[in-house]
Write a structure and sequence with these properties.
The chain has 13 helices and 19 strands. By secondary structure, the chain is of the alpha+beta class. The longest helix is centred in the last third of the chain and has 19 residues. Bound molecules: flavin-adenine dinucleotide.
Length: 402
């Protein structure tokens, strides 16, 4: 089999194909394998998640059903066993995230490359596949340097995000040349561009709740950490929200509940207490007891209250507005950050045209797809690399059995 792309999907596909008796040549445009694995998990590679199956699939906002079979064939337990058996000890961290004990993403890639080489697989680096054609039962793969032929080809070229790692969407044109439809690639796990004031840049919030509303309907709700950027918002819960927001059009807002543990009445009582204890101070100087200082001006502005006003002259109505703003600090979502800055790409080869068990194209025998080039995407937590491993393993395994 010819594998195009030495990312998580292509590498695991090569392992599965070699273990099941196929010959494998991996064509990779970069000078080395797994450039995206190197940057994953901030260089530590969160390679899978120990979540139970039901929970696991809840972390896949796009086309989870398509992934059932592949994930069941090569699940998190099997991924962990594979790396442990091949001398990459693993550890489980918060939220079921799995990392190498060494905290080195390079150990994950090195393990896969070593395994493939020991099983007789061949790597061809620094060659970019330009086109793939089929005549009879044979595929001809043309790179910028050579021509290769084989009866089976796996396209594991990734999506369009972080193009410096090699994923520039080449797989889409290869798929299209065989008549496959590409679901429009969009950013996922992306920062949001919003009408947030630049004074909030760098502010990070913990234990807040966000609600994303599209045309009056709540489309996403989450609790955790987020941060303000120069252009809007980012951080764990915002990244996950973006993978849902990208499916909607029209007016979208994000509301932050700064005090999710306190209901409106309790929060109002808390405010009253703070006011009583600081009777002669301005509201601007009292509110930092309740929220980060940099938020105070924004919250007062949104509540329509003069920052100079002394707390003893704040009216009941103004107090209510303050509570309302602290529970619903709302910004308009203008869009998602550009796709090259997104962690993953949503969209790609239409899953309706791929056999979910074998990853073989339903249009062209012998043509396989795996990884982010396919139209699925997952939330953060190790699910994306796990699904690249699962789809890669399925493709390699069934291609070898064919
Ligand atoms: C900054 C960052 C951090 C991340 N952290 C995590 C994490 O901790 N956990 C997690 O689960 N997911 C994480 N992800 C997402 C995850 O890394 C990817 O979803 C996954 O690695 C995709 O694997 P892939 O093999 O499908 O694609 P890729 O890793 O993109 O591999 C595709 C390969 O194909 C090669 N290629 C492309 N076109 C051609 C061509 N024409 N000819 C030859 N070769 C070609 C590329 O050079 C590349 O090596 C992260 C992503 C980013 C950007």
């Amino acid at each position: 089999m010819l594998v195009i792309g030495a990312g998580a999907a292509g590498l695991m596909a090569a392992v599965a194909a070699l273990e099941n008796g196929d010959n494998v040549v991996i064509l990779e445009r970069n000078e080395k394998a797994g450039k995206k694995i190197y940057v994953s998990g901030k260089g530590r590679c969160n390679l899978t998640n120990v979540a139970e199956k039901e929970e696991f699939f809840k972390n896949i906002p796009t086309n989870p059903k398509f992934l059932y079979s592949a994930v069941n064939l090569f699940d998190s337990e099997k991924v962990r066993a594979f790396f442990e058996e091949n001398r990459v000890p693993l550890k489980v961290e918060r939220g079921g995230r799995v990392f190498p004990v060494s905290d080195k993403a390079s150990d994950v890639t090195a393990c896969l490359v070593k395994k493939i080489t020991s099983l007789g697989g061949k790597f061809v680096y620094s060659e970019r596949v330009l086109k793939v054609e089929k005549s009879g039962e044979i595929f001809t793969v043309t790179t910028d340097k050579n021509i290769y032929t084989d009866g089976k080809v796996l396209v594991a070229t990734g999506g369009m995000s972080y193009p410096l790692t090699g994923s520039t969407g080449d797989g889409y044109s290869i798929a299209r040349s065989f008549g496959h439809k590409i679901v429009d690639p969009k950013p996922a796990l992306s920062a949001l561009i919003a009408d947030t004031p630049s004074s909030l840049t760098g502010l990070s919030l913990k234990n807040v709740e966000i609600k994303v509303v599209n045309k009056g309907k709540i489309i996403y709700k989450d609790f955790g950490e987020m941060l303000f950027t120069l252009y809007g918002v980012s951080g764990p819960i915002v990244l996950s929200a973006s993978s849902v927001i990208n499916k909607y059009e029209g007016e979208t807002t994000i509301s932050i509940d700064l005090k999710p543990a306190l209901d409106y009445d309790v929060l109002e009582k808390r405010l009253l207490r703070d006011f009583k204890d600081n009777i002669n101070k301005s509201i601007f100087n009292v509110l930092p007891l309740l929220m980060p200082k940099s938020l105070v001006k924004v919250v007062l502005e949104k509540s329509g209250i003069n920052p100079e006003k002394q707390v003893n002259s704040i009216t009941k109505e103004e107090r209510r507005r303050l509570v309302e703003t602290a529970k619903k600090l709302t910004f308009k979502v203008i869009g998602l950050a550009p796709i090259d800055q997104a962690i993953v790409t949503s969209g790609g080869v239409n899953v309706k045209e791929i056999d979910p068990k074998t990853m073989e194209s339903k249009l062209v025998h012998g043509l396989y797809f795996a990884g982010e080039v396919i139209d699925y995407d997952c939330f953060t937590g190790g699910f994306n690399i796990q699904c690249a491993f699962s789809t890669g393993y399925a493709a390699g395994y069934y291609a070898a059995k064919k």
